[in-house]
Design brief:
Distance between the termini: 39 Å
Number of domains: 2
Helix content: 25-40%
Strand content: 25-35%
Number of strands: 20
Oligomer: single chain
CATH class of the largest domain: Alpha Beta
Length: 362
């Protein structure tokens, strides 16, 4: 078993409240990510769970046992740190074996388990090397091996891929996910990289300013963001967020952003009313860059292409619409020939939020 339950966790440093009423559950064999920007409280939450920080309030349960006040070494947790933290005076074999030696595991068993883990991570040819002789990817595998060899209940990973180069990071994402599934282990990982989270996670807890803003599967987080922060943070490029009001003219409804007006159906307005929203002002419209269409037909959204970023068969375009820069994604063959373009999108693809609270309306 390897389950985790966090209930109403709080942690402050002086006047700074790093974690505010954080609650979530991690199921056995699940890969869960705490995702958010620097300073959002994700690493502090992880450290409280691991017993490296003492929470001000709240409860932490591992396999149903209250471990809030239990020492780190008795929680059944293995940690992998951002900087790998290998012992420079020990070779790879002894780095991996170190947690087993602390627990006085017999030498024969240590040798067997270290070799099994090393073969699994494809570093069995490095066991005699010192940390200074390893590449970044090799060092990361050694750190993972030291954690896995413990056979812990929960594996806590604190941004372990941050210092790898881009290509190696992509490779390690796939290897780490495959390893987690193969071993059936329960993993809690912290990252600021939304691509890491959405490609590897079974479940994501999106954090900001010490709170969990939304939880769900990568698909749920991407397709149904419940807050402007989530919409703007998850996605590459992120959702276009446009402030404005809904106006009525001669029985027709428009989202008025100042720079342009976007027509809305009466069904859309009815959905807003059904959601309990009476006022049609103080709104934020969200549209994913990949949902924006270029059209030869004149629309109310007229812009100028300022930047084209080529990414293999696709491209990301910056389109200036008066005071707004809208991101649009399209296949290279669909890039308009003229810099002056008309934009459009399907209202079914629109997210609508309350501007002041950031909460999703429909």
């Amino acid at each position: 078993m390897g389950t985790l339950r966090v209930e109403h966790l709080y942690k402050s440093y002086g006047k700074v409240q790093a974690v505010r009423d954080v609650s979530f559950e991690l199921e056995n064999g699940q890969f869960l990510f705490l995702l958010g920007p620097s300073g959002c409280g994700k690493t502090t939450t992880l450290r409280c769970i691991a017993g490296l920080e003492e929470p001000d309030r709240g409860k932490i349960y591992i396999d149903g046992r209250d471990v809030t006040d239990v020492p780190t070494e008795e929680r059944g947790i293995a940690m992998v740190f951002q900087t790998w933290a290998l012992y420079p005076n020990m070779n790879v074999f002894n780095n991996i074996a170190f947690p087993l030696k602390l627990r006085k595991v017999p030498k024969g068993e240590i040798s067997k388990r270290v070799k099994e883990v090393a073969e699994m991570l494809r570093i069995d040819n490095l066991l005699d090397r010192m940390p200074g002789e390893l590449s970044g990817g090799e060092s990361q595998r050694v750190a993972l091996g030291r954690a896995i060899v413990r056979e812990a209940t929960i594996y806590c990973l604190d941004e372990p891929l941050t210092f790898l180069d881009a290509l190696l990071r992509i490779q390690m994402r796939g290897e780490l996910k495959l390893l987690q599934k193969k071993l059936g282990i329960t993993v809690l990982m912290v990252t600021h990289d939304q691509v890491e989270a959405t490609t590897m996670a079974d479940k994501i807890e999106v954090m900001n300013a010490g709170r969990i803003i939304q939880e769900g599967t990568p698909k749920e987080i991407y397709e149904n963001p419940q807050h402007t922060f989530v919409a703007g943070f998850v996605g590459a490029p992120p959702t276009n967020l446009i402030d404005g009001d809904i106006d009525e003219e001669m029985g027709e409804y428009y989202f008025d952003a100042g720079a342009f007006k976007y027509g809305l159906s009466k069904n859309f307005i009815s959905a807003i009313r059904q959601a309990g929203r009476e006022s049609l002002s103080g709104l934020t419209l969200g549209i994913r860059p990949e949902r924006i269409k270029f059209t030869e037909k004149e629309t109310n959204i007229k812009g100028v292409i300022e930047v084209v970023e080529y990414e293999g068969p696709r491209a990301t375009l910056d389109v200036r619409v008066d005071g707004y820069i809208l991101k649009a994604v399209c296949d290279i063959v669909e890039i308009p020939r003229s810099d002056r373009v008309y934009l459009d999108w399907d209202e079914k693809e629109v997210f609508l939020f309350d501007k002041s609270s950031g909460n999703r309306i429909i």
